[in-house]
């Protein structure tokens, strides 16, 4: 097998390249020059291509093409390189660029999830409509950075005014409940959807404020923020598995109207489950999520499906390997 | 070996049947018709018997008896089929029905735990006695659904009046501390108790309210609820292990006065540990708990005891296998 | 190989001795008499030496020397035996006693971390300087026992007056953010630093107060405490790994000015990450931490480095084994 798996050295790179090596691929990491030393300690990375800035990754394209690279995108990949890279690159790409574009546009994402029959938090079109606490989310895959809550219309207006960035954002009804993230893999080769793992994000500072008594919160002037710093592995109540599995299937099905191949490979449904056990889908990530890093040697869920340790990174590599051996590579590349 | 392990397709079914298959058993899942498709994807399930309603499971009894099934109960099993099934069924049953009955009756449970020398939260016999915040718990194994807190007698009265269900309940002193769940297996064959894992429940919405700043809580009119949606794997401070192990031993010992065989197989002590490191036992579950799903390929604790991945489901199957090979099956079935 | 690994039966003893056995060593646990029964169930412990009190451990020294024991210290080891033991003992000791002394003295620790270029919370020299909420921490490795917060100077004075213990303490600025603990191993043999795992402590009652609505907190008169009762396994955002790795390297480097061998073997950087993604180092533990118990069969991070399950306990044993085989034992013992 003459292919190399390549990705940007961040996010879930270690998992992706470890999985690729476990499946017999050569591996390449494209790393910011200052991180080359760090990544060098991992023996499953065959080569590290340094870059001064991710903006310059396209300069490496020739080298990557010569190595017969297949590129695996992840959250930082998407955030750093942006859709410009995706549009221009000639590198074989594991994932649907069109679907990633839809993911990046929160309103388009919302329409897709609605068509897939997800239960969604109310999305407000204008500030004047806002009649309850909302969470404001920026566009793009940036691990929750910049999200904020506003308890009512007034606070919302004030905070939006103070917020200097002029980015696109949406205003979502704040759902009281617990966040649960379900990691899926959809295989175009088998036509089957797999639950690969479940996690819960660990966000600063919102996951620290519960440790501050109410009386002290005021003193500290606590303003919640939602930047993802890590993840907890969890398991989901088994009686909910068929429910979330069906949600995953519907999302895949509905994606086929967005692009020919539709959504395939790894994705994640990001949910809040409320007191009355309603599963709200608050976001979808259409590529490998950082929560899969909890399961570098397999999760309780992948252990039920595979007779060996199967991370999401390895699952991707296995799909590519199978596609190569079955001469179906074009079905899983974009 | 000519036995089949069977259970209801929910709760910890996947773990139980995976473990049974790992130990060489045939496996059967009794699934709600609409979930058959979901369970079909797991290759370790040999057969899925569909049922329209769990009330009709007894109609399957003949089929299950013909397959030489041993039934393994779990939380949903107990909640769906109830004690009626337990009383009538002729199916060999891994677990003590009498003990499960005691578990289901919170006051009988309390008496047992008292006799076992557990430190227990105060249980109020009447509303008029209530002199501090309490948590109100319904009878039965339903994953915390319906539990609520009341900060004083007045609120308690109001909430009980508003609560339409006329179920049995207890009023327990609210203990400030952290919940920790210790998973045990008691082997009647070896006469030994094993610590198999430790988890912490993930409950909606109570595990979400810490993410809401105090000022916003009021706006959102947050009322805590305690429905278990998942579990976190955790480890316990090693200096507490001998303490909780002794608690487990005392509970097993005291159970022998409740039924001839007493408590055996999997059980869980559900504790709250307070600031002064006191371990309060708030509940006991006398069968496999969903928290063991964290450890489908073994936990840090089972890894200390076994040279191979040992989930609670597999541990059950191994006990049955050993009982068969030693002709001691009647000692572990009810 | 004729060596025995010995430690005190608490904290991370099970992990240490399991790891030692996996690497081929004989193993000895020194256990409080009442815990001997508990530790007996673990087959990887070859011998348990009972002691009435940890103060009397030195009485066992001859026995331990005869068995060719190498002692592995851990948190309870340090807390129970104290620096007196360290100074007097002739037992080969895996770890730098001088560095442990610096760890135990919070001001010396602070100076070291400053020299290593860590971002540190402000440390107040006198009560009168205190101008914001602070956390008060006692000296020594005691799992957070006795820590408390004060929201301002007045509360601080009141609480210090009420606090009867006359121990040394420091007053640290309270940082709003999320706690993340990074477990490292520095190998003097290879000269390399390894990230072995990441966890988050589970502290009573501070990790329980988020489950209490603000209105109820008042009623319950909740005062936060920080006694560690367990740990959650987590993973860290990959883009932060190079940052924390560099922090670990700087700490090791700076330690060489504190003692000839400097810091080696297992250590842990205890951080709080704030909203603006700043990594504050709030403490350092210069020996195996209890959070490594999450990873008795390896962590996502050790799985990236080793082709087999590698707990911190086993990593220690492997370093000792390699030192023996290379005749470099004196480089890793104190």
CATH 4th-level superfamily of the largest domain in chain A: ATP-grasp fold, B domain
Biggest interface pair, residues each?
A-B, 49 and 46 residues
What's the number of domains of chain A? 3
What oligomeric state is this? homotrimer
What is the architecture of the largest domain in chain A at the second tier of CATH?
2-Layer Sandwich
Question: How confident is the prediction overall: mean pLDDT of chain A?
Answer: 94
Order of strands across the widest beta sheet of chain A?
11-10-9-12-13
Shape of chain A: globular
CATH top level class name of the largest domain in chain A: Alpha Beta
Q: Give me the Rg of chain A, rounded.
A: 20 Å
Tell me about the largest β-sheet of chain A. Answer: 5 strands, antiparallel
Q: Give the low-confidence spans of chain A.
A: none
H/E series of chain A: EHEHEHEHHHEEEHEEEHEHEEHH
